Fold BLUF domain-containing protein.
Amino acid sequence: MTTLVRLVYVSRPRTVGRQGDSQGRSRKAPRRDSRDDFLAMCDEILVESRRRNADAALTGVLVAGPGLFAQVLEGGRAAVSDTFARICRDTRHEAIEILDMRAVDERRFSQWTMAFSDIADAPETLVARYRHGPSLDLRAMTPTALVAFLEAVAQAQAQDNALLGAPCPTAGFLDDVVFVEAAE
């Protein structure tokens, strides 16, 4: 029987300079200093990770904030380890720090091959519940609190998508979070 593990880590998105794809092949990166460019980079990561995670039976969530990615990966130990090694070689990430990796009895993100939320879109009441001080510091959270926060953010994003008419997430390994821009 395969051991189910949960990996929790944070990293900093590489925003300017040399950048590469997930295999570490370097190419001259465009400046990633605008919000639109940053979200485009997140979209690139999500398209690739959802496909690969489906193939490897991984689930999880990625939350992007100002200068920070926080991510949870769940699945078999070998698949999580292989995926994390690939993330470490991906030049879109830097300052990668593992906060926790442990065997678990069940998945917390079983609905998503890779849920995503931009922390700027997280409900303020949710952010206030987890903030200690003037700003939300994901790196300062305990791994347990961070997983709970990321799960709450993923659920809030899924609810927002449903309100905007996006398809509901389904169990299984399909692309699950669709961004729908609301009409003004």
Remarks:
- DSSP finds four helices and seven strands in the chain.
- The helical segments are 35-56, 77-89, 124-130, 143-163.
- The longest strand covers residues 93-103.
